[in-house]
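Morning!

This is the sequence you dropped in the shared folder:
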Amino acid sequence: MTSLVDKLVPDDLWALVEPLLPPPPRPPYGGRHRTIPERNCLAALVFMARTSTPWALLPAKELGCGSASTAWRRLDQWAKAGVFDQLHVEVLDQLGLAGRLDWSRASVDSASVRAKRGGTTWAQIPS
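The structure's back. Tokens below.
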């Protein structure tokens, strides 16, 4: 029987994501190590992205991610570590190798690519 976590994070997706995740931080003062699996937290994030559910309504028990706070902390840690940027590049690389990207219809704007201010010289405003 397939669990909800396996449906939200299939093995091929997990194989892409797992190597990108940073190692868990050492417990302060010799505390206990993380008990919530990373895959379950990723499943919670996928669930949130698919359903646009408020964090308070996350079915944490069914997903085995502890709580919405735990999933939120992992999201924050992974975002700061650049996991999602690396995953984006990895997915694009795999799609490119499979010939499934059509760059003839690409669009770039300042939301996806930083616009340099003024280039090498500032524009001269006529008086």
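Headline: The radius of gyration is 20 Å.

More detail when I'm at my desk.
O.
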